[in-house]
Amino acid sequence: MRVLVTGGGGFLGQTIVRQLVARGDSVRSLSRGDYPALKALGVKCVTGDIADRAVVIGAAKGCDAVFHVAAKAGVWGRYDDYHRANVIGTENVIAACLSESVPKLIHTSSPSVVFDGRDEAGIDESAPYPSRYLAHYPQTKAMAERTVLAANGSVTATGTRLATVALRPHLIWGPGDNHLIPRLIERSRQGKLRRVGSGANLVDTVYVENAADAHLQAADKLELNSAVAGRAFFISNGEPLPLWDLIDRMLACAGEPPVTKSISATAAYWIGGAMECAYTLLNRTDEPPMTRFVARQLATSHWFQLDAAREAFGYEPRVSVEEGLVRLREWLSDPK
Prior knowledge:
Blueprint: E1 2-6, H1 11-22, E2 26-31, H2 36-40, E3 44-47, H3 53-60, E4 65-68, H4 79-99, E5 104-108, E6 120-123, H5 136-150, E7 163-169, E8 172-173, H6 180-189, E9 195-196, E10 202-203, E11 206-207, H7 208-221, E12 231-235, E13 241-242, H8 243-253, E14 262-263, H9 265-281, H10 292-299, E15 302-304, H11 307-313, H12 321-333
């Protein structure tokens, strides 16, 4: 295939790009920065903003599929910034697919789009979108996901129809991670990590190679009127574990001690709310040490049924948590 990967320079994006290149696909990447590692793979790199429709349309020209991975992540910031990247950016990707008659759109969503602040213990894709969100990221990602799924079957410029799918990988980690693992290590070294809640909450994550596998598998099966088209799918390792046990094991890979201090889920939630108010009043753009969304995420269970992904496109995680931790330890000891 001739493929465009938006956010191809990011953690998941680069893994998807490498897998596509390895199997012989012709890959183009759209990112805001410069990524020599992608150019070394023979990837055509387009530099630009996902919120610029003309740039996105130009990048999608001649493609057979678009993997829309680019997004503004995080738990704090201006709503307009999240809306611009996650909603307008996604609308531009859809417009590009229709303008350039790209038949397949694979969208990277998030399980947080259905998070209502309570335990998600073995839920499936029938879980509804909540009526309110605790952060701009899940709110705007939900808006983007719904727009992508609604675009399934839309008529392109040449009269063909667009097939779309949304994937919801949960807590992606592994070698090369520039978000989750570095944040854990930094907070551990600063002495700022606290167990939130009882510590019994089960959480499933996804190793980055498995998340990328799911994207390619879904793309290969994606056709209009297929079992994949117009649907959202949870993606994880299928290994729910006590969250804080897993965090301790990740920290151990970096030589960091386990988290011993704790705070109740209720206290963390109210402290998060107070910090959000203070940061808003002070017009601070840096992330507060705690927010209501983070407090709820750390204290509740998050694991999902994978039956839909298995049946629709044959998803099966090939790298276990155990093997992933071995690889993570090796990378942290020699990140080059």
